[in-house]
Amino acid sequence: MNEFLWPVRVYYEDTDSGGVVYHTNYLKFLERTRTELLRSFGFEQDKLKEQVNIIFAVRNINVDYLKPARFNDLLQVGAMIKRLGPASIVFNQTISRESDNSLLCQAEVKIACLTADTLRPYPIPDNIVRKISHAD
């Protein structure tokens, strides 16, 4: 799969008193991008919960913070599927500043497919696997 990119503007509320993006907000930017990636394939997470009784939840995340993002920066947040398992997806994700193309953050994120009612692992539905497996 090609890298999916999503633009994110840094707002004042995303920063700490020094004007630097607070570390947990990078995780929010990564999450938004994975959500938009699913949406680009035609899958809305609320509909998946209502209609198929599944949710996607972070199982593991490994993040390297390389350089700070600051108030009003325009960022490009990337997501690429590294590995697709029966009930999980591993993403390689990046956050770069658009103005100078600096890599600010990189992460490997493992997402688990779970039943919404019991929160037990559940195989990723075939239609989702087909769509994301053939994306280029």
Care to describe what's here?
- By secondary structure, this protein is α+β, with helices and mostly antiparallel strands.
- It has one domain: Hotdog Thioesterase (Thiol Ester Dehydrase, Chain A, Roll), CATH 3.10.129.10.
- It has helices at 23-40, 45-52, 126-133; strands at residues 4-9, 54-65, 74-84, 88-97, 102-115.
- A five-stranded antiparallel beta sheet has the order 1-3-4-5-2.
- Strand 3 and strand 4 form a beta hairpin.
- The longest helix is centred in the first third of the chain and has 18 residues, at 23-40.
- The chain is elongated.
- The termini are close together.
| Count of folded domains | 1
Which outline best applies? Answer: elongated
> How many separate helices?
3
Q: How do the helices and strands follow one another from N- to C-terminus? A: EHHEEEEH
**How large a portion of the residues is in β-strands, by DSSP E?**
35-45%
Proportion of residues in helical segments: 25-40%
Average pLDDT, rounded to a whole number, is: 96
Query: Largest sheet at a glance?
Result: 5 strands, antiparallel
**CATH topology term:** Thiol Ester Dehydrase, Chain A
Radius of gyration: 16 Å
CATH architecture: Roll
Spatial strand arrangement across the major sheet: 1-3-4-5-2
Q: CATH H-level name... which superfamily?
A: Hotdog Thioesterase
Q: How is this structure best summarized?
A:
The protein is an alpha+beta fold and 136 residues long.
List the keywords.
single chain, alpha+beta, Thiol Ester Dehydrase, Chain A, five-stranded antiparallel β-sheet, elongated
Task: Please outline the helices and strands.
Elements: E1 4-9, H1 23-40, H2 45-52, E2 54-65, E3 74-84, E4 88-97, E5 102-115, H3 126-133
Antiparallel strand pairs: 1-3, 2-5, 3-4, 4-5
